[in-house]
Amino acid sequence: MKSKLGICIFSVLLGIGTNLFFHSLEYGEWIYSNLIPSNKQNVPCKSFLYLEKGWEVSKLSGEKIGIFSLPRNFSDLGHSTLLLSRSIQFSELPDCKLTLLLGKTSEGTKVFWNGILLSERSELNGRFDFSYDKKKVYNSLPIRNQNKLEIFIPEYFKNELGILEGIPSIGNTKRILEKQYRFRIYYLILISTFLLLGIYLVFLTVQEKKLEPHFHFGIFLILFFLFSFSGSEWKYELGWDFLFCKKVEYISLSFLFPFFTFYFSKFCRDKHHPFEFPLALWAGFVSFLFVYSANPLELDKLNRILLQPSWIIYLWILFKCIKARLSKQDGAGFLGSVCFLVFSILLDISSARGWILFPRCSEYSVLGFILFCSFRISGRFVEMKNELKVWNEKLQEDITLKTKELRESLTNVRNLKDKQDGDYFLMSILQSCFQNKVNDFGDFKIEALVSQFKTFEFKSKLGEIGGDLVCIEEIRIGDRKFLAILNADAMGKSLQGATGALLASSMFKSHIDSSHSGFYTPETWIVSLYRKIHGLFQSFAGNLFATGILAVLDPENSCIFFLNAQHPPSVLLRNNISGFIENETSYKMGIPILKDIPKVYCISLKENDSILFGSDGREDLRVRTKNKEIQSFSEQFLLEVSNTNGDPALLKNKMEEYGNYIDDLSLVRIFRKVNPRKKSRDIWRETSKRKNLQKGILLWKKGDKKIACSFFSKLSSEDPNDKDLAYITAWAYWKTGEYEKAKTYSEKLLYRDPKNHQNLVLLAKIYFQLGISDVILLGLLEGSGLDVQRMFRPTDYLRKVS
């Protein structure tokens, strides 16, 4: 208990000491002159002549109100403008230049010396429109034996009227300027230490992620420096724009409490309060208003009305954090510092409203509070060092113990390895059941190569296991035969990757078996498979991902539809020139969130064309240099595809010349052979398609819409590469009320051309009719400039949707 009390007293004394230090710089000589009178007090060249008493306050009409002392806030007198006057006598004229130090006054104050309007240097140069937060210094006073000082004071800010801070005095110009600059330099040195400490803490936490509270405190210190510096008188010395500095001051002020609360909550309770982030957003909103404020009055009004009320909630959060920290020694210190700071703020509020006469102390109390927090952070580093020393000693003991245990475990590991190789052998047999068994399909030749990185030996039998797979199966979509291809790379090596590959293969086979009863196009079949594998992998909560190519080969039209789920780009080899096909991919299968529309590509293959799919193991190799770094040989892979004509086995050997394989490798080559009869057949199919399309349009115009829909559907099935036919079919089914079929053909076009504005609108209507809510689709529509909410509002239903 004594230790907690001592820390609490230390924190309070630190705040008091900071106040005393800066107040001694400002009021030390005035206090000394009142306690120990001196003969030099009437000699302004040797000491200051203080003018705090005997001020006559009157209205502008000349009616006298009373005699008062300064500094004082006269807002309680109920007048918007006042005239302050005082006579100053000198028995002998001073032999030095005298300067009047007036202190901080209300904005618009005018000072007359013997009827002459005095001006500061900045006012003469026209550098500043405002100076209400500056201590007024008037040089080269024209001194007489009998002098009269008159001060005209208007009200600018509400409830602020008078000499608000500082003791008015007259003294040697050199001594007054020296005193002013000494105070500014000491203040600058102190707040600069906070800036340096803040930058240090920010860079430290960039390296050490565990020190998150210190990052928030570092940002707080940097903001406090900006707040203090922009509010100090250095802006007048540097000639900076006043309104810009005030905006910086208020914006820094708005974020001081959020970042300090972030630090305090994490430091005391190791968690954030739910109110912190909404309050931070509110501070950001107020800061945005600060940026566009036109004058200090707007800044002050926004601060008083919008920002300051939120501080009550911050104080409540801070006291809750202190309550949680009171069980530790520094909790009492934080309590003492915060209580002293709140007490200082209450004193300033009372002084500003004229209830009491007391120098401003909250800003210096804040400095003391920050000093205590800085000491506590330094102490925390010392504690961490001591804890590390203890842990190192314990670690030495644990190492000796663990070494013994490891020797015993090594024998167990050798036994377990034999069992593990048995598991590998079983998994490799299961994987082989799904391997490619199709070599020719129509005019196409298919070649596949799978080489897993992990090899093993079980009972003198060599095997390999990994996450790459190639599955090729014949499927039927509608009345036609297609070839389905899956080339995937599951995350992880050995058992983890093999498990993912086995799951993807099983889902591929399951989707083929179940798709006979569904209504698909090649595009929707691919996306359906993609979403099934994605949903399966998603159930593993981020522990299993897979990239892959999901493709459907159409032998009749000599084209291939495929979706790239963050697999390496596919390669097209034509006329012995190779190049990548796709420039964007869909999300890999298994990621927690799927937000984009899957993209399906369609490539028409000419005679002697080859298309090549492969996993990232094809080009990520470890070079055989001293550093043995891993490099990607993407361009070299393209070159070797041309050199080897895409042959998977030759390509694998050629790439090994660049480096060693570090991952599983899988390659699939689809080659279109020469068929002289295919050209005449294609011409006949094109002519037949046009005639049937015209026939379908005539049937539609005659009113036989159902029959026309079947014509359009058949034409689209026979030529699935035609996007216009897909849209016509979707539109026709939509008009006849067959929304499920309309949905299939519209989605077919969506996956091929997600930016087709006309199809997006049609699909949105279909979804709306079927009661399907698709946020991604609505986002695409809104991105096209449509008012989606109004378009599909129930009140506009008949007019917009039907």
From TrEMBL:
<keyword id="KW-1133">Transmembrane helix</keyword>
<feature type="domain" description="PPM-type phosphatase">
    <location>
        <begin position="450"/>
        <end position="672"/>
    </location>
</feature>
<feature type="transmembrane region" description="Helical">
    <location>
        <begin position="275"/>
        <end position="293"/>
    </location>
</feature>
<keyword id="KW-0472">Membrane</keyword>
<dbReference type="InterPro" id="IPR052016">
    <property type="entry name" value="Bact_Sigma-Reg"/>
</dbReference>
<dbReference type="InterPro" id="IPR001932">
    <property type="entry name" value="PPM-type_phosphatase-like_dom"/>
</dbReference>
<feature type="transmembrane region" description="Helical">
    <location>
        <begin position="185"/>
        <end position="206"/>
    </location>
</feature>
<dbReference type="Pfam" id="PF14853">
    <property type="entry name" value="Fis1_TPR_C"/>
</dbReference>
<feature type="transmembrane region" description="Helical">
    <location>
        <begin position="305"/>
        <end position="322"/>
    </location>
</feature>
<dbReference type="GO" id="GO:0016791">
    <property type="term" value="F:phosphatase activity"/>
</dbReference>
<feature type="transmembrane region" description="Helical">
    <location>
        <begin position="334"/>
        <end position="358"/>
    </location>
</feature>
<keyword id="KW-0378">Hydrolase</keyword>
<protein>
    <recommendedName>
        <fullName>PPM-type phosphatase domain-containing protein</fullName>
    </recommendedName>
</protein>
<dbReference type="Pfam" id="PF07695">
    <property type="entry name" value="7TMR-DISM_7TM"/>
</dbReference>
<feature type="transmembrane region" description="Helical">
    <location>
        <begin position="250"/>
        <end position="268"/>
    </location>
</feature>
<feature type="transmembrane region" description="Helical">
    <location>
        <begin position="213"/>
        <end position="230"/>
    </location>
</feature>
<dbReference type="InterPro" id="IPR028061">
    <property type="entry name" value="Fis1_TPR_C"/>
</dbReference>
<dbReference type="InterPro" id="IPR036457">
    <property type="entry name" value="PPM-type-like_dom_sf"/>
</dbReference>
<dbReference type="Pfam" id="PF07228">
    <property type="entry name" value="SpoIIE"/>
</dbReference>
<dbReference type="InterPro" id="IPR011990">
    <property type="entry name" value="TPR-like_helical_dom_sf"/>
</dbReference>
<dbReference type="InterPro" id="IPR011623">
    <property type="entry name" value="7TMR_DISM_rcpt_extracell_dom1"/>
</dbReference>
<keyword id="KW-0812">Transmembrane</keyword>
